[in-house]
Design brief:
213 residues; 3-stranded antiparallel beta sheet; 9 helices
Length: 213
């Protein structure tokens, strides 16, 4: 055992030097200083701070979001974060749960998803729409449907659409992809098309996350 561990240790990659800290873009908006002061103070105060933090964040968010887009459109691609006024980290993270456009079960949901996909094709073009929206499925057994015989059927083969519908409950979800999330920052045309769908209540607006730098 000792020889084995020794051999593995020799093959293990050596640790490289300390990783250099990434330099984040910096933006200065003097008009936001008072709001940033309020946000940071509320962040430090553990008592009843959440409400005040939301208020100050709302005051900061619109200008911060606009600056974030400018940074991403300056030619360096998507930048996940930047430092605002030297004290506040503004960042964006993709979360598929947050970017779910529609979720439900049954034929009505499938029909609605198809309608939204057509609207997306009109807004973005067919190729980009296929990249920007993806459909996911969650399948659950209906109550009392699972037993040894059913399991044997599934292992061998599901007996066609009618049998499938009898055994399973299917939930369909239409989700905006990470590519759409990032292209809303980097590509003005995509951002404008996404804004149209956002105004129709189909896409969720970007709201930056904030924390002390």
């Amino acid at each position: 055992m000792g020889k084995l561990l020794s051999s593995l240790a020799k093959k293990a990659p050596s640790k490289s030097g300390s990783k250099k800290k990434e330099q984040k873009p910096e933006v200065n908006i003097p008009d936001l200083n008072d709001h940033i002061n309020g946000f940071l103070k509320a962040h430090e105060d553990e008592k009843d701070a959440s409400g005040r933090k939301r208020q100050f964040k709302a005051m900061i968010a619109a200008k911060a979001a606009s600056e974030h887009q400018k940074i991403c459109q300056a030619g360096n691609g998507f930048q996940g974060s930047f430092v605002l006024n030297g004290r506040l980290l503004v960042y964006a993270q993709y979360n598929s749960a947050h970017h779910t456009v529609l979720k439900g079960a049954g034929e009505d949901t499938v029909t609605k998803i198809e309608e939204i996909q057509k609207m997306a094709e009109e807004a973005f073009g067919k190729d980009d729409a296929e990249k920007f929206l993806t459909t996911k499925y969650a399948i659950e057994f209906k109550d009392g449907a699972m037993d040894d015989k059913v399991l044997a059927k599934i292992v061998k083969a599901v007996g066609g659409p009618e049998e499938f519908e009898r055994l399973f409950e299917v939930t369909s979800s239409l989700v905006a992809t990470k590519e759409l999330f990032e292209r809303r920052f980097t590509d003005p045309k995509v951002a404008e098309a996404a804004k149209q769908l956002q105004d129709q209540g189909l896409l969720k607006p970007y709201s930056p996350s904030l924390k002390p730098a």
